[in-house]
Amino acid sequence: MIIPALDIINGNVVRLNQGRYEMQYNYGNQSPLLWIQKYLNQGANTIHLIDLSGARNPHKCQTSLLIKILKYNKLIKIQIGGGIRTLTDIETLLNAGANKIIIGSMAITHPHIVKEWFKHFSANILILALDIRINSEKKYIISINGWQKNSNFELKDIIELYNTVGVKYVLCTDISRDGTLSGSNVTLYQDLCSTWPNISFQASGGISNLEDIKKIKNSGVKDVIIGRAFLEKKITISKAIQCWQNA
What we know:
This protein is an alpha/beta fold.
């Protein structure tokens, strides 16, 4: 399905360009709650919500704001991530009303802990977020800490690691496409979906028009995350949903 994205820094909805915090655009001083209501009115049933302050520095998590958002409207589902480091962090968000929890950096830096989370909770509520940069050897290298640091791990190795504990949802972002409106990396998602057909992949980064949606739908992904194109009204949510259903 089509999932609108809201990234938040210091309480404001922003978009980064290729993951660079120094290249961010702030979409006014409207509360994230107002954006969520707009998207609900336009037909969205799920929101992708990321605490970019927390993703960059876990000590700056906007937990109180996230809880307020989660309790605001029970009509819309929210998958939420950014700065999640403990089992308690997960429980706090779930108790506030989150439907799915997105785990990123911890899955790379502390895989033994995150694998236990998959056993403690359910693979139905945990989304493995793997954000990649393509190096000079055309390898997909995972970035962590709000995309500020490259790890030493390749995408395929981490997917295989969590496949052993039954990972069901994987969100993969090509950072070079994120916030650019330059189209999605369809080849990446075709490779992922054909290699791991048992996993539901979410695509993120680069969508700017309905043609982009048609192309990514044919890759086999189950969901597509769209941020800037909706924030800047390049396309409407209702038309995006209709395009996705008819592609």
